[in-house]
Amino acid sequence: MRLNFFKYLYPHKKLLWFGIIIAGGLTSLDGIVSPYIIGTLTNILMAKHFNRVPQILVLYLVLFLIITISYWIWQLLWAKARQAANLRMRADVFDHFLDSPSTERIEKVNNFVNVDVKQIEGQYVNSVVNLVYCIEQAVFSLIYVISINGIVSMAFLICGLLPFLVPRFTRNWVEGSSEIWNKSYEDYNLTLNEALRGFPVIKHFNVSDIFKKRVNQKLAREENKYWQMSYCSSTASFCSQLSYALSSIAALSVGVLFVVNGQVNVGELISLFLASDRLTSPIITISQVFNQLNTTTPLIKENSILNSKQIAINNLTIASQNSIINFQNCQLGYQNQALLKNVDFTINPHEKVLIVGRSGIGKSTLFKTLLNEIPLISGTIKVAPNVANNFGVVGQESYIFSDTLRFNLTLGRKIADEKLITILKKVDLEKFARLKALDQKLGKSGLSLSGGERRKIELARALLAKKEILLVDEGLSGLDKKSSQKIFDLIMTFPGTVLEIEHIIGKEQSMQYDQLIDLNQKQYQVE
Ligand SMILES: Nc1ncnc2c1ncn2[C@@H]1O[C@H](COP(=O)(O)OP(=O)(O)OP(=O)(O)O)[C@@H](O)[C@H]1O
């Protein structure tokens, strides 16, 4: 688990972590400076050597200043480490998502960025910095107490180790509770998000009460698991605290015995007592930090988005051939369950192909397979070398970003305004074909578009990107007659190849395609 942290954060910020160790080390000297000054002052005052008091106080001031400045620097570097961790985790998770995106992973990414990162920052990054500091303080204090009296310091050390053993017994328990909470949080978040997005359905069907109950049940479960996690963590800490109290008393008793026997003086006992607290309290903190690390570990360890790059799907075999796409005896479907079999067809360059079939037969599945979104179950799809990654897609649900019309058309690439305007006219979006309209905001807080307009923007995107092959999934549905005819004409004059899925299409229009693939045919059906 600790390896994960270093894998993600340490290699990129070596100097920063070096600074944290040095500044933390100087700050941790606080653990021996006060005990030393108080013990020495006690002995000076008891021996009535008052002339040495100013010298000790100046030394105290100098050391105090060094510690305070180190503490300030340490805090700044700590904040930098948090910043680095946040930046890296958030950037990584999005990069990994885009390397192999899927709808199922959206919720996970949202969860990670909004919740897990904060928890990792609070409990993991802070814990590791704290851990380093505590180790330094414990080591310095140990050296100091040994220099006063070896045997008494050994008593403090042995007693100090007792609390360190406790988390070993509580670790699995604490980790398990965190995993359970994490799962129930994801479950609640999914239910809530679905209810938020599905509000029109909830409203139209008048089922608000059912959904309130449904979401609140998940919330209650999630909060219950959160409480159980806090209970496990607090109880584990309580056990550590208890063992700490017992060990401190035992160690102090040994010290008192040594004073009674005259082997240690009063000033030394005070120094030993104060410094030993700085020895055992970092040790107890170390054990508490381990508990915190354990609760956060599942977030990092189990986060498939952060930890593993998913293997990219590649269904397409590149081959030099006359045809542009060649399906050979393919089986298509999900999780190795075929929906369509014996899929065998050839598409030649520039052909306009119409794919039909009843609802749910697997038309969109065929597109998803071509786009490498789902794996091909068996068979071969041979494509010409210029085809891979050269698909333009006009889908059933067009995606509009909350940005300008220009951004939605270009997706950030540089394309001349005149070209954008020409394309807008081409796709029958005359009312946006003006310079001013290009900078109009669309999407969430901007202009709302009709379903047909969204489709046209998506088609314009595909035309602008000059893709070799256009995949159109019900591009004409929901459009009025004029728009439908215009889009149909555009598709028919598209300079490359077109594969188009349509449900409802006039006989006259369907006759104009070069090829018709009817998935209703028996040869494709899986019994
Ligand atoms: N991710 C998935 N996992 C498992 N099954 C799925 C998944 N996506 C779709 N399916 C199922 O695959 C079948 C075919 O779906 P597909 O979307 O390809 O049909 P379609 O022919 O395009 O239908 P429509 O014309 O209604 O859009 C459906 O029964 C659907 O429930």
Automatic annotation (TrEMBL):
Q: Which Pfam families match?
A: ABC_membrane, ABC_tran
SUPFAM superfamilies under this entry? ABC transporter transmembrane region, P-loop containing nucleoside triphosphate hydrolases
One GO MF term attached to the UniProt entry: ATP hydrolysis activity
Xref: Gene3D superfamilies? ABC transporter type 1, transmembrane domain (1.20.1560.10), P-loop containing nucleotide triphosphate hydrolases (3.40.50.300)
Protein name (record): ABC transporter, ATP-binding protein
Q: Which InterPro entries match?
A: AAA+_ATPase (IPR003593), ABC1_TM_dom (IPR011527), ABC1_TM_sf (IPR036640), ABC_transporter-like_ATP-bd (IPR003439), ABC_transporter-like_CS (IPR017871), P-loop_NTPase (IPR027417), Type_1_exporter (IPR039421)
Which keywords does this chain's UniProt record carry? Answer: ATP-binding, Membrane, Nucleotide-binding, Transmembrane, Transmembrane helix
Q: Please state every residue range assigned to the domain named ABC transmembrane type-1.
A: 18-295
**Topology versus the membrane, per the UniProt entry?**
Multi-pass membrane protein
Where the protein is mainly located, per its record?
membrane
ABC transporter domain location: 325-524
Cellular component GO terms held in the UniProt record: plasma membrane
Give its localization.
Cell membrane
